[in-house]
Amino acid sequence: MSFQHLKFCHRITEQLPADTQLENHCRSVEHAVFSWVSPTPTSNPSLININEDLAKTIGFSEADCASSLFTDIMTGNAIITPMKPYALCYGGHQFGGWAGQLGDGRAINLVDVETSELGYLTLQLKGAGKTPYSRRGDGLAVLRSSIREYLCSEAMFNLGIATTRALSLSLTGDQVVRDKMYDGNAELEPCAVVCRVSSSFLRFGSIQLPASRGDEALVKQLVEFSIIHDYPKLKPENNQFDIETYLNWFKAVCDQTSTMIVDWMRVGFVHGVMNTDNMSLIGETIDYGPYGWVDDFDLGWTPNTTDEGQKRYRFGGQFQVSQWNLFQLANAIFPLIGEAEPLQSIMSDYALQYENKWQKMMASKLGFKDYQGVSDQTLFKDLQTLLSTVETDMTIFYRLLATYQAKNEALTHFADCYYRADQLTQAYQLQLTNWLKRYQTRLNFDGLSALQRENNMNSVNPKYVLRNYLTQQAIDLAEQGDYSEIEKLKIILKKPYDQQPEYETCAQKRPDWARNKIGCSMLSCSS
Ligand code: AMP
Ligand code: MG
Fold first, then answer.
1. Is the Cβ–Cβ distance between 167 and 195 less than 8 Å?
2. Considering only CA atoms, which residue is closest to atom 14 of ligand 1?
3. What is the pLDDT of residues 326-352, one digit of tens each?
4. Which of residues 204, 230, 258 is at a domain's end?
5. 41 lines ligand 1 (CB under 6 A)
6. Residue with the nearest Cα to atom 17 of ligand 1?
7. 383 and 355 share one domain
8. Is 498 a catalytic residue?
């Protein structure tokens, strides 16, 4: 077994400058995009779960995945030819302030694989030990956060949302001390490694760091690398990159980013730490930390306890933050452009573009053929108010809306999506029935059959999302050595839009015990 049937290659390490120092100690790394580094061997590696579909797409056979060499590679215990592991150097704005150099503090990239279906993919181990970018960290990841990343990235993928993927989840056999809620209750926790996969792990912060150091040559090299590999259609035929090419690249990054945020809003996903080091240059959802899924619709909700006061990364603020982050990226590439106006103009377009995509998305959620203008906009805004008036489960509401008919008694029809019966006052009922009347009139305008509308709506409004409490239950069991719930959730979330009667309980609203439970409604960055 050697995996030599895979087409391995090295895009970053062959085309971008390496850190000239080889020692693995924390330092400032300048004029380089990455540092060579080896994963730290672990005491007793074992595979907990594997993403069979992705493994197959990459080219791993079933026998490959069953081999001990595969487990060793997936945990950083074996490096086969021609793998040459490295960690990326990048910076970032964290919670609005410039944090300087950050980098892959516990992520180690193994190699690229050329696939027929998905093009080039980089295999990356998260939690594989210290790198020159580990700062005060230990380079490790605990089981609970690794399960969260493993399940959620694939859930997002199956919802049709741009994301990094996850190939495998393994235990290392080691343990590490973590203070889960930063409250002085430190405990030993099992360590794990997720093998993440993406066509690009470059972030906004990858460009920002050399820009902050005045290293214009490296900014240029990185932007051109991203054009060639991430946005090949933008590559000039004669390889003569000019200002227009750079601007088109920035536009494309904006375009990918707005699509991603609209998708998050569609399904009720809150990233939780939208720092610029966690923003991918290809607009993929990346770095699953204290993320959360909206249960009761609340635009002000943030799952991240570190963000509790400011709520910078709240559900309803994700567009504004993405815009702020793109401004930082625009600043970073300014030296390549030389004037502010074209960048400002792209940023103004970004707001318009987002608005247009959001309107189309909302129209599809409501089962309309298309967005029809300002009266639809009012209907959407009033729906948001309605959903926020009483605690309403967002996911269940939209599935029930798909089967709502004028003849139905409204409160009875929507009964399953409410969290608090005491909130269902006369005033609320009136608000609901008034909105539904206007909705019905709008549906009549389109004239779709009830079945057609239901099918359309159910293809954009998921029945199953990775509810926070479901993940937490899988984590609680896994910490006792039972990994069955991880497999079950993985299977359910492969078909998030389908009725799966055998898994109906996983589509129900959050049980009351989970309302304020750690891991179910709030998380810290500790991972
Ligand atoms: P995050 O907010 O999780 O994206 O992390 C911000 C930065 O901290 C990134 O550069 C990470 O690589 C680094 N980091 C997070 N956790 C650890 C850890 N346990 N050891 C080393 N570096 C870490
Ligand atoms: Mg990060």
1. yes
2. 105
3. 999 999 999 999 999 999 999 999 999
4. 204
5. no
6. 137
7. no
8. no
Cis peptide before 511 (omega within 30 of 0): no
- Residues 351, 376, single domain; the answer is no
Give the structural domain span for 263: 214-363
Supply 474's token pair: 């899988």
Nearest CA to ligand 1 atom 13: 105
Whether the CB of 140 sits within 6 Å of ligand 1: yes
Given 64, 277, 296, 393, the catalytic residue: 277
Q: Provide the 8-state DSSP code for 502.
A: G
CB 286 within 8 A of CB 302: no
Residues 139 and 15 both lie in one domain: yes
How many whole angstroms from 105 Cα to the centroid of ligand 1? 5
Taking the CA of residue 287 as reference, the ligand 1 atom at the shortest distance is 4
Same structural domain for residues 157 and 246?
Answer: no
Atom of ligand 1 lying closest to residue 94 CA: 2
Co-location of 332 and 407 in the same domain = no
Residue 131 in domain: yes
CA dihedral 500, 505, 507, 513 (to 10 degrees): -170
- pLDDT score of 449 more than 90: yes
Contact 193, 141 (CB under 8 A): yes
Do both 198 and 227 map to the same domain? no
One-letter amino acid identity for 471?
T
Reported as a single tens digit per residue, the pLDDT across 152-176 is: 999 999 999 999 999 999 999 999 9
Q: Is the CB of 126 under 6 A from ligand 1?
A: no
